[in-house]
Amino acid sequence: MAMVWGARILRAWWLVFILLTGMGSASACERSVRWNPDPPFTHMDANGEVVGIDADIVREALTRMGCTVRWVQLPWARALLELEAGRLDVLPGAFKRPEREQYAWFSDPRPTPRNVLYASQEALAKWPLKHIDELPRVGFRLGVQINVSYGRTYDALLKQEAYARSITRQSNRRNLWQMVANGRLDGVIASEETAAIELAELKLDARIRPTRIVLSDEGARFAFGKRAVEESFVKQFNQVLAQMRREGLVRRIHQRYVLPVQ
């Protein structure tokens, strides 16, 4: 009798163990988040940790939601494909566009620096440009990153098909800066904060300067792949993001990485 009773107790404990283990695995939350060297938004620090404005915001928000982050290093164009395929959960720093809404949910916007046209000193002296529509007329050799949206003004420029075909596209923006320095391009579109950091690091900040042409000050967002993430998760993320704003945390994170823009 004692042996039967002991066997029952053992089976009962085993059932509890299975239930608890199953509950734990079901409630575990890990989200894959894209990063690439793109200061001040995402980059790797001296300790090998991914940090930056977007990195710190999304890590804190997901932590508050009981999730851990798995960083995935991807160039921008590849990240969009992975998000669409459901192999990437979160893509920080994305503009909300109709074609992207087919496969992605979008968070509320976060503070975003302006996208500005940068040009070599030689180009600035040659062309006192005031509007992006002037670029095709003067034959401005423009460089951009592959599949990056720079705002609706840039989208309108791309409708001039002949000029759109002449634009140089690279996955790595630093390659574009070097092409300007070598005289192969006249200018590059970039966010003010990113340009300030990268041009200073490359010692090109005296040779490549911002023009007066601002393409966008639209707020960037965190994009969530529809195949991997439920819409309810994004709504919860927005609630957490709003709370972080009320606490002043988003502003403090932004100030942590921003260099003065000249």
Characterization of the model:
The chain folds into two domains: 29-112 and 219-257, D-Maltodextrin-Binding Protein, domain 2; 115-216, D-Maltodextrin-Binding Protein, domain 2 (3-Layer(aba) Sandwich). The chain starts with a helix and ends in a 5-residue tail after the last helix. Strand 2 (43-44) and strand 3 form a beta hairpin. It contains eleven helices and twelve strands. Strands 9-8-10-7-11 form a five-stranded mixed β-sheet. The chain has 262 residues and is of the alpha/beta class.
For the structure shown, list the relevant keywords:
single chain; 262 residues; alpha/beta; D-Maltodextrin-Binding Protein, domain 2; 2 domains; 5-stranded mixed beta sheet; 3-stranded antiparallel beta sheet; globular; disordered N terminus
The low-pLDDT segments are 1-27
Number of DSSP helices?
11
CATH level 1 class label of the largest domain: Alpha Beta
Residue share in helices? 40-55%
- Integer tally of domains: 2
CATH superfamily of the largest domain: Periplasmic binding protein-like II
Instruction: List the helices and strands in order.
Output: HEEEHEHEEEHHEHHEHEHEEHH
Oligomer: single chain
